[in-house]
Amino acid sequence: MKISRYLILGSFLMVCILSACSSSKSSKKEADISIEDLLIEVPFSGNAWLVDDVSLNEDMISDPGLKNWMKKTSLIRTFVRVNATGDLCVGLKAKSLKGSSKVKITIGEESKEFAISNQEMSIIPVGRFNVSQKGYVQIDLQGVSKTDSYFGEVSHLLIGGEAVSEGTDFVKEDFYWGRRGPSVHLGYEIPSEAGDVEWFYNEIEVPEGNDLVGSYYMANGFGEGYFGIQVNSETERRILFSVWSSFKTDNPNDIPEDEKIKLLRKGTDVKTGEFGNEGSGGQSYRIYDWKAGNRYRFLLGAKPTNDNSTDYTAYFFAPEIGNWELIASFRRPKTSTYLTRPHSFLENFMTEMGQFTRKGTYLNQWVRNTEGTWFEMTKAKFTADATARKDARLDYAGGVEGEYFYLKNCGFFSEKTSFDTFFNRTELGIEPIIDFKKLP
Q: What is the rounded distance in angstroms from the CA atom of residue 77 to the CA atom of residue 139?
């Protein structure tokens, strides 16, 4: 009896051990990958962001990748777009500066911890994750523990597996523009019977929660400039109106005197000067605390003068004030034209904010010809910039929602709008009521 009891107990223990070993091997097989599984390198410098404190992005993520990684609370988020579902093999190219650290990668509800102890930049396989939907995948990296001051440095995310079998998209070059994200545009169609257009009227309403720092909601674009509202910081917002010089340069100091933009007049509290880097010319802005959820009106005029120049004048109407107010009037030499190419656009101009989505709505577009007749513009063409067109970023959209057009960009949402698509909004038939003689 005693021997039988021991045999039974021994058999039971053996079954448990074998079961545990089998379970361990199965688990290990699911988690383990090799370097050969990691076929694609995704540079952190163009595809990763610090989420918890965006002000530290430039200190922690630059051309070499992730550095100065000290805080356990730092959440580093990387995005890649996949065109298939299934296993996504994930690894890092990383090193420890001194000592070792334990970190984790999370995709969806699944997390995997691993160690960084190598002193040279090396490939570290992490494991397999299941991707159940096509589109952008959010990959989070966070420190768990460390023996040194730093968790380590990371240059690349590495991926492979079934999820990338049909291709993947991410920022491979031009990291500055890739981190800013794609700019999106609406080109309005002027009715053919309008003739020479002297005035362009538009309205913008930024949905609540979409007024992110770094956003420029441009209402009245034209062949030679742009006019709209932007969020410059947590404490400052602006109304911005600029006109490019006919002289092509990114340095305003290179513009000959006879091609410089001339300020004719400006409104109260409006600052004026020159701008460069994306073409050059004359710029004006007024610091104004506009609000998301409120609708703002924009009026832009263009009129040729007798000396082969054109005068451009911008007015802004805030519902909180209730009057049209002058922003500025500029003269552009060596140009004789009425308004051309009326358009709107939406852009993010801060690299650290390219990880967040913003949306703008554009309403009630009209043009007024030289005879004083208004024409409603209800048709618009959606386009996007080079960052979008070369598939560096595919988080862009635009279109129509009932009575208004909209633009949306950044934040790595997966749906996108085809380039050069035309949209028609509902015709309202209510022309702007403006007493031009009383404009300031």
A: 6
For the segment 381-402, what is each residue's pLDDT rounded down to a tens digit? 999 999 999 999 999 999 999 8
* Paired tokens of 429: 């038939």
Q: Which residues, 6+ apart, have CB-to-CB distance to 25 below 8 Å?
A: none
DSSP 424: E
Which has the closest alpha carbon to 410: 344, 347, 360, 361? Answer: 347
Q: Is the pLDDT of residue 50 over 90?
A: yes
pLDDT of residue 431: 95
> 66: which 2 tokens?
């992730």
Of 198, 116, 173, 182, residue with least CA distance to 357: 182
- According to the model, what pLDDT value does residue 275 have? 85
Is residue 317 within 8 Å of 323, Cβ to Cβ? yes
What are the sequence ranges of the domains in the chain?
35-170, 178-438
What's the token pair of residue 270? 């409006």
* Residue 252, C-beta contacts closer than 8 angstroms, at least 6 positions apart: 245, 274, 275, 276, 280, 281
- Element at 45 (helix H, strand E): helix 44-47
Q: Which residue in this structure is represented by tokens 């492979």?
A: 160
Q: List the one residue out of 85, 44, 73, 39 whose CA is nearest residue 61.
A: 44
The C-alpha atoms of residue 204 and residue 217 are separated, in whole angstroms, by 8
CA 136, chain centre distance (Å): 14
| Closest C-alpha to 47, from 36, 63, 59 | 63
Q: Distance from CA of residue 162 to its chain's centroid?
A: 28
DSSP β-bridge partners for residue 366: 201, 376
The answer to whether the beta carbons of residues 344 and 220 sit under 8 Å apart is yes
Count of Cβ atoms closer than 10 Å to residue 243 Cβ: 29
Fold of 35-170: Jelly Rolls (2.60.120)
Who contacts 208 (Cβ-Cβ below 8 Å, separation ≥6)?
Answer: 292, 293
Compute the residue count for the chain: 440
Predicted pLDDT at 193: 97
Report the C-alpha gap between 412 and 396 in whole angstroms: 8
Cβ atoms of 398 and 345 within 8 Å: the answer is: no
